[in-house]
Amino acid sequence: MLAPLLFGTIAQLAVGQIWNLHKQGHLQIVFVLTTHSLTSFPVIACLLGDLKILSSELGRLALSSAIVSDVFGTFLTSVTTMAKVMDHSIPIFIRDLTLLIMYLFFVVYVARPAMLWVVKQTPEGRPVKKVYISLIILLVLASGLLSNFYHFTLVFGPFILGLAVPDGPPLGSTLVKKFDVITNGVFMPIFTTICMLKASPHDLKFSTPLEKANAVVVSVIVISKFLFVLIPPLFCKLPLKDSIALSLIMSYKGVVEMATYSFARDSKVIDFEVYAFVMATILFTSITVPLLVNVLYDPKRKYGGYQKRNLMHSQYESEIRILACANRSDNSAAIINLLDTSCPTKENPIAVYVLHLIELVGRASPVFISHQLQKKTLTNYSYSENVILSFTHFQRENEGATSVSVFTAISPTTYMHDDICTLALNKLTSLIILPFHRKWSADGSTVESEDQTIRSLNCSVLETAPCSVSILVTRGHVKNLNSAASKSETYRVAMIYMGGKDDREALTFCKRMVKDSCIKLSVINFIGVSENGDDDENHWDRVLDNEMLKEIVQNNVVGNGHVRYVEEMVRDGTQTAQKIRAMANDYELFVVGRRYNVKSTQTVGLDQWSEFPELGVVGDLLASSDFVSKSQVLVIQQQQTS
């Protein structure tokens, strides 16, 4: 921001001398110079949201830069306004300054505590009372009127008050839901249309010195801003395409600048000709910048790679890194139970990275929190408190065998897969565990609810993840393997094997389980009686499958766990389904490979009835409402390498 201001000021002084501008012309150029040099945070956040890169690394970098520029711009505008008032009348300046300080004290020590009190008084899951919403609306209107009356900008008071509103549910989300449709759906299109209609193409003549000077200064600002935003990322070894995309994003202008220039035109601060030119530049950037950024920046590009980051290629008796995702606090028990089955020991430790996913509502920018770096202690109103406590307890029960790091991602569900994949990439995880989008009743007989946004999230992660991915289907009550009663019981696990890379990955996970003497693993190999082995790829898969099963076939016991190997000959998918249904209540956990789009004799005909392709044919069968069982289901997809 400083570079455009500096170079714009130099250009303004130069063109003023060349074209001999009058005082009013200088003031108009200074206004355009200041406004065009700023970067508006709401505009950048809206652009990133439209481009669906709000949670990407580039998006977060742009948001951080924009908020610094916006805060500096607000401070600069306030100082300029106060200086003008002081130049006009010192008593009025003292009065306005006193009222400003009083207003800030009111917001910090009255409005903010009152809103926090409203949050505390609202039961979880219940809406905020209408009377509180009405009072906040009145405060917004009053703050706007006072700001305008006491020589501040109209939006200054509401802006400061908005900073005091607690983000997220219940208050922030309620305010967004109340006003989002009417403001963004009705008022915003009408306002932008009116602003553009005020600008006439006939005013773009460039016939007067003021118009020429304005065009030169705006061009200098745009070019200098683009170049000076481009240089630091390149110096930090950011790819050229990403650096150019960041420069374009920071040069973007939108509704905030449009409103500023519209108010200035109505107040006769700038002429019609100047207004027409700046509106034309805003229209040009709003059309070209999104198109260019879409071409230059692809957030999925960094996830693609050739490095093997899956369970099969992890070193034997080495630490396994797992990213466990939870969108509800009740996901924790099922995930912890699954981690317990993987038998973490000091010789085979597990590093667990827990990501609590919260939908972004009631705030503009996404938040990513590392609770290890968080200095604040937990409060009763911490979103992730239950998740943190559950996994902290899990770590204590497996002291020395597990390490747990908890994170919280607050972002729109459309972009949550970016948070998941980025964390998996940065932490070098071998497996991601995702919860299924269906919530079952306590007895596992009926579906209580479905969350289609979570289903879309799971599908996005399966497509872009930099490592292996699993989806955990939880039905009924989850048995705690660490309880005293459970340690004396046998936990039965069935691995349904049909061949292929996903099944080999799933079997690798199962092999870790059998080191626990409480776990009994049954590997059930379904073999198609009419399989054709002539295809080279199928032949190579068979070789790998035989090698993978060799240890299971030759040894009934691996480590201290019990292993049973069974071969089932089937003619088609119908016979496979019958055999799987027959064992519905024989096991506490079924583990299967996803085998997406894999055609085989064992599943012929089943894909026509598949409801959830993200689970694969067999996983879909095990997770269907027709499959009467209380068993948990784990569906694993091996890392998709380039």
From TrEMBL:
Gene Ontology CC terms, in alphabetical order: endomembrane system; membrane
Superkingdom in the source lineage: Eukaryota
Keywords from the named record: Ion transport, Membrane, Potassium, Potassium transport, Transmembrane, Transmembrane helix, Transport
GO biological process annotation, one example: regulation of pH
Lipoprotein is among the record's keywords: no
Primary location: membrane
Designated name of the protein: Cation/H(+) antiporter 4-like
Residues shown, of full length: 129 to 770 of 770
